[in-house]
Amino acid sequence: MNAVVTVARTVLGALPSPVPRRQRRLTGRAARVDTIPYAMPVSSEESAVLMAAFPISLAAARDALPGDELHPVSLGFGKGVLVVTVVDYRATDIGRYIEYSLAIACTQGPRPAPPLLPMALQRTLRMGQFVVDLPVSTEVSVKGGKGIWGMPKHQARLDLVVNDRTVSAQYDDLDGRLGAFVEIERPSPTALPLRMAAANYCAWRGMLWRSTIYIDAVGDVAVGAGARARLVLGDAPGVAPLRALGIGRHPLFTAYLPTAHGVLDDHVEAWFLTAPTLVAADAATAAGRFGEPLESVVGLGRGEQWPPPPDRSRPGVESDAPLGAQHEGVGGP
């Protein structure tokens, strides 16, 4: 295994930075968008990142995606992928905040991709993730993330706790209902150089938005049987679509990146979300599948104050449940 890690480290370390030249040329310039000031490029420093991916029902994932041009990534055997990513953004233009992403791996195009192929042809097949729920700590992050990049951000009570054995993160909504709790066993030290571009697909204002973030970090990764994690879903409205996904008990991989550097591209793309008829489009909009309306960002300020931390005293959250088990709801099977 040490030999495999050494080879992987050498190969990954030789990859070039994923940040486009245009973003590098913007260094030193400034922007003010929707009253928010930015030092270009839009970057973050020294961010801690927890990641875990779980198998899900491919058919259920397909039903959860909006429109007709997003397709869940297939692992074969009727399985898709749910990706949980929690980032403690410690240094950004809008202050410190935590972001808790719950997303379905997907591709964009007229038809689904063959199983596993998107892993090798990410750019060609426009692989990314459709963000189902995206709570953040601060009002200004909602204002910028949703108003500029179309992300479904909303303010919530969040944390990220790191100790010698585990990394965990909890999300409660502002009314105190549990959204999600994820905990991973810290992977064995691999110190893999990770330089990657990740695309986010989001529904907002009846449109599909695509934004890209570039990551440069060194992290520890565990795959397959070596990955141990658990995911608890609560009853907050934001996670309701996830409960139908048939989330598997054992993670596909886990990762912990202690100090990631990120650049969020200021270029964003958007397309109309469509349905066979206007009646169907109206129904999808009413059900929230086509995202919130423009009014959801009107009146937002630039507050950087965090709500109270989430309640970790709930049974099933800070329990002795074994890592590797996955629970749909506190106290679930």
Helix-strand blueprint:
Blueprint: H1 2-13, H2 21-25, E1 30-33, E2 36-39, E3 42-57, H3 58-64, E4 70-72, E5 79-89, E6 97-108, H4 117-120, E7 127-136, H5 139-149, E8 153-155, E9 157-162, E10 166-172, E11 178-185, E12 192-204, E13 207-223, E14 229-233, E15 253-264, E16 269-272, H6 278-286
Parallel strand pairs: 7-8, 7-12
Antiparallel strand pairs: 1-2, 3-5, 3-15, 4-6, 5-6, 6-7, 9-10, 10-11, 11-14, 12-13, 13-15, 13-16
Structural write-up:
- By secondary structure, the chain is mostly beta strands.
- It has a single domain (2-296), classed as Acetoacetate decarboxylase-like (Beta Barrel), CATH 2.40.400.10.
- Helix content is 14%, strand content 41%.
- It has helices at 2-13, 21-25, 58-64, 117-120, 139-149, 278-286, and strands spanning 30-33, 36-39, 42-57, 70-72, 79-89, 97-108, 127-136, 153-155, 157-162, 166-172, 178-185, 192-204, 207-223, 229-233, 253-264, 269-272.
- The strands form 3 sheets. Strands 3-5-6-7-12-13-15 form a 7-stranded mixed β-barrel.
- A hairpin with a 3-residue loop joins strand 9 and strand 10.
- The longest helix is centred in the first third of the chain and has 12 residues, at 2-13.
